[in-house]
Amino acid sequence: MSTPTPLLEIKDLHTDIEIRSGVVRALSGVDLVVNAGETLGVVGESGSGKTMTALSLMGLLPQGGRVSSGSMLLEGEDLTAMPPASVRKLRGTKVGMIFQDPLTSLNPTMKIGLQVCEPLRVHEKMPKKEALARAVEILKRVGMPRPESVVNSYPHQLSGGMRQRVMIAMALVCQPRILIADEPTTALDVTTQMQILDLIDELGVILITHDLGVVAGHTDRVSVMYAGRIVETAPTKTLFTEPRHRYTSSLMAALPERALAERTRLFSIPGAPPSLTDLPVGCRFAARCLWATDQCRAGYPDLGGEGAHTYACFHPVLDDDESPAALQARLDAERAADEAGADSTDQAGPGGGESSGSGCASPVEADGAQDPTAPPTEPAPRGTLLNVKEASREYESAGSGFFKRDKGVVSAVDRVSITVRKGETYGLVGESGCGKSTVGRLIAGLEPPSGGAIELDGRDLATLKGRDAVKIHQDVQMMFQDSYAAMDPRMRIDQILAEPMSIQRTGD
């Protein structure tokens, strides 16, 4: 019996991006296979090449980017051999993509309904009225509240989670054969996450994500990427229970639930990935690997393994190996003990007498830090830092009728009260569009409350004037949901970082 042709097969894919300072080797020999109805998870740290693999497949590489070698076979047709016009026709029809940054991927000048139905109008030549009806239907399927009114809204009028659902609807509206989902559920509440993941379950899916919980529950196989390469691929259950590459094992050890279950401090992989413009000769993970040898630093291992489980590692994980977290803790303790012994010898002097201590300090005594294997201690209670008292925020909605006279009021936040103590982390959760981000904007002073009060260190933010009103932004900072949309594309990163210090008159 013949083996069915994979829906998608990527072979030895190399993608380069030319920049002023050199060439970024974004992908170096990537191999992926996705079968019909299968979900392949692709995981790895930021910058490992996950999104670049997707953009290579879609023909949407940034300026200076090109596929230098390799092939991408979609139902047997090589996309790398197709002219750009033919690849464009496949987008949305055979291949759909959910982009990572929904706000920057949506047209701010077009209403949502027109954007969702645009693929239908372009690819299927569907009449506008019928396409809009399909847009409402698909928005309803992705869990959008009030889809009939949302189609008449603009992107900036929606919450981050609602914009994410619009992106998902646009990717699915033409019923593609394969879907590339780049962090598709990061801005969604848990209920909607499950609804979306169940909706795309019947397609061939490449699921790019940092959420290993989503990977564990919604993928058939997983490929792990590091510095532009696939370092391990396995069936999902096998990867979680029997990881073989040292990088995969380290990722698993860094899961917060592992530290919580074992009552140990959270493990983090030391160092950072290598620069893709100056790659090492050997294994790209060697500089961060606790098990690396000269062999690892001298050459790159080929993909090996058995059957569906392949990995590229000279010293793969064995079943009875010490975990990365345990090994790191032991090495830290030994290093601290050695330093303590050296200090004790120095204090004794050249005569060799005893120092005023045991001469064999524990890791805690050696460097003043807590034993890394010890569970975290509860912080002592502290005073109130932030006090939100029945804060409300109302927006005037556009009126109806020809002269727009009958204007209404939308209550985004209604009498919310929050108390946050010094040193405390306060969680604020809820479904998309329930007002979480609006509360954050009120606290950060980015919008004035319509009612109530917000106090920081006992000072009412509404009463601050002049320099005090400016300085409050130094004390209250906000990390925005859409990071790319929050940065000025005309400014360099150093200018963006220096701007708040210039405004606050701090630093040089």
From TrEMBL:
It comes from the Bacteria. It is a peripheral membrane protein. Residues 332-384 are annotated as: Disordered. Pfam families: ABC_tran (PF00005), oligo_HPY (PF08352). Residues 8-252 form the ABC transporter domain. Keywords: ATP-binding, Cell membrane, Membrane, Nucleotide-binding, Transport. InterPro entries: AAA+_ATPase, ABC_Ni/Peptide_Import, ABC_transporter-like_ATP-bd, ABC_transporter-like_CS, Oligopep_ABC_C, P-loop_NTPase. CDD domains: ABC_NikE_OppD_transporters. One of its GO terms (cellular component) is plasma membrane. GO terms for biological process: peptide transport. One of its GO terms (molecular function) is ATP hydrolysis activity. It is found in: Cell membrane. Belongs to the ABC transporter superfamily. This is ATP-binding cassette domain-containing protein.
